[in-house]
Amino acid sequence: MTVLLICTALGMEARAVRRGLSRSPVRVRLRRTGLGPRRAARVAATLPEFDALAVTGFAGSLVPGLRAGDVLVAQEIRYGDRVLACPSAPLLAGELARAGLRARTGSLLTVDHVVTGARGRELAERGAHAVDMETGPLARAAAGRPVAAVRVVVDTPAAPLLSPATLRNALTARRVLRRVGPALTRWAAATAPRTVLRASPDLDSAASRADLVLVIGPAGSPETRHLVESATRHAPARLVETPEHIELAWLRGARTVVLTAGASTSPSLVDTAENALRGLGPVTTDESITFTLPKDAQP
Predict the structure, then answer these.
(1) Same domain for 132 and 174?
(2) Over the stretch 212-259, which tens digit does the pLDDT of each residue have?
């Protein structure tokens, strides 16, 4: 069974996450690190065995669009002079949004002290959306394994720490954090090595090799609906408009995934979906397969 290691800085964060883990498709280990990057680095050196790592808890927003109780799923983690990409962030953000949370992807910066005022504005201008004090050292310890960073906003530029709104915002963030755990376990259950095939001239042949077919394109397009119908004869097929619409439950146990799209869909969107899958584990692609529609789906 997949082992998911969840790290939090504070005991109250760990308790909030644990409350949402009554049922889990994976084995979960919780580890509290204490506050700050130095403590997190010491813990990172002695982490137990795991297959996927999630760092979660509270964060400070640097931008007006992130309010107290909003969830930032890190698309990249910045720490010192290093930047760690988290390709599966759109999948996890979509999962949290379907659970009713205000979730978005963005850049998470790990710092060694509380950031407010002019310094916060400077960091926002450099592209950071939120700050925490532990994710960077822990994410480095993932060493190529799937990693996710999910932070719930407590303080904002308009309501910094130690402001009159802090207590109310912290209680809001704690309630949200209780709802993050189930999505993290579904994310971990979807992690695995897999093969990704791009649509071939013979979609039927590709679909017959697949555990799942993802058709990417507008929901109202007759072309994409036809592709779904064609693929469904051989494997479960789903129509999604963006990677955020891919449900993690579909990917559990799906070791071979076919990606295809209609002619009106940009190939870059298919590239984005493939990249998101790479965030769930090693991906092998079949270079002999080209991105071409089957004849009966061509306009």
Answers:
(1) yes
(2) 999 999 988 888 898 999 999 999 999 999 999 999 999 999 999 999
Q: What is the pTM of this model?
A: 0.92
Q: Do 43 and 126 share a domain, yes or no? A: yes
**Among 172, 189, 206, residue at a domain's last position:** 189
Q: For residue 235, give the 3-state DSSP assignment.
A: coil
What's the count of helices (H) and strands (E) in the chain, helices before strands? 11, 13
Clarify whether residues 52 and 152 are in a common domain: yes
Q: Which residues pair with 148 in a beta bridge?
A: 54
Sheet strands (E) in the chain: 3-8, 27-32, 52-61, 71-79, 82-85, 103-110, 130-132, 147-155, 194-198, 212-216, 237-240, 256-261, 283-285
Measured in whole angstroms, the distance separating CA 45 from the mean position of its chain's CA atoms is 24
182: Cβ–Cβ under 8 A, 6 or more apart, which residues? 20, 21, 23, 24, 99
Amino acid at 91: L
